[in-house]
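ugh ok fine here u go
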Amino acid sequence: MIRIAIDANGGDFGVETTVPAAMMAVRKFPDLELTLYGNEEKIKPLLTDATRIKVVHTADTLSMGEKDPVHAIRSQKEASLCLAMKACKEGSADACVTSGPTQCVVVGGHLLIRKLPQMDRVGLCPFVPNKDGRPRLLLDVGANVELEAEAIGKLAIFASIVSKELLHVEHPKVGLLNIGSEPGKGREVDKKTFEYLKNLPNIEFYGNVEPTEMVQCPADVIVTDGFTGNICLKSIEGTAKTMSEMLKEDIKGSFGGKIGYLFMRKNLKKFKNRLSTKEVGGAMLFGLGKIVIKAHGNSDADTYCNAIRLAKEMVEANIIDKVLVALPKEE
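structure:
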């Protein structure tokens, strides 16, 4: 059985999302056991099927607007996120899924689960939709404002293994997000990282990738620091959302557009699905000793269920052990 700890109180909607998602997940996957850490009084009325689902009561929840994540993790030890992560640390869970505040998830990973010994930093890695239908991995997107070349290299190794095992890319290519495709572009840290990745074993380095290539990307994994990655990800998300809204407004703006919509509904739905991350479920926190999936704060039950599925697949693929083998040995 694969055991996953669920931060049931977390996110914008809390148990209203996590409980239905948990029931969906155990129905889909007979080898799954879930433990919901959350308010039992609110969970029980929603939990109409408790098959392979256990509830551990806590009413404490980390605020989605938390300003001091370190203090929150250290002072709110009975918060649902902290208990779920503690279960991973103690070995009673193989993975953790949460839609709680991102920085609390990152800090909690550091303080409660802890990094793998060979990792310098952890990295937050979402799947980014791509024109060819196969998503790309982009990291870091917010766990670290700055990253040195060696830390980016280790995250690149981690992401390459995930790309190979989960997306079935035989030889994942790693690109460095930069302002130009030619070697020698960017800041000093970018130039140093380029040279480091070029000579790093256990990855296939593609070279620089420009932001304009992100949704028609020649690489399978794109690495950068958390500041640049976060701006890139939010630019993609914002552009996709605005384009969809503009298209909708133009169609509704005339009688002919409304008639045309009747013939284009299937195509428009397909277009929307190509830009959606709903099927992915969440971002992955790389570098920890256990699998942690960070679902979006406003996830619905279907999206959260897919986050649980992603955690399950990463455990099944034995990602952590494979990363430990591939990482450079400490001298």
